[in-house]
Amino acid sequence: MIKKINHIGIAVHSIEDTAKLYTDVLGLKLKAIEVVKAQKVKTAIIPVGESKIELIESTDPEGPIAKQIERRGFHVLMRNQE
């Protein structure tokens, strides 16, 4: 049984542009923006209750997230243990 959705990851072209939907329209707060050089991404965390939305922007046009955006990808992490 699924106990919790840890986060929903959404690959985006621009964190700054996309974050406006969550902050300005939905009234959520942006917690942190971080560059993860090893994965060639910039991420933004937006808490939603006990879960979070993670916006993921590629920092490299040939990186895995840039390729995922071409396929319209996202991921959901679910926890099945307490």
Structural class: alpha+beta
Q: Class in CATH?
A: Alpha Beta
Average residue-wise pLDDT? 86
N→C terminal distance = 11 Å
How many separate domains make up the residues? 1
List keywords for this structure.
globular, 5-stranded mixed beta sheet, 44% strand, 82 residues, 2,3-Dihydroxybiphenyl 1,2-Dioxygenase, domain 1, alpha+beta
Question: Can you describe what's shown?
Answer:
By secondary structure, the chain is of the alpha+beta class. It has one domain (about 5-80): 2,3-Dihydroxybiphenyl 1,2-Dioxygenase, domain 1 (Roll), CATH 3.10.180. The protein is built from 2 helices and 5 strands. It has a 5-stranded mixed sheet with strand order 2-3-4-1-5. β3 and β4 (about 50-60) form a beta hairpin.
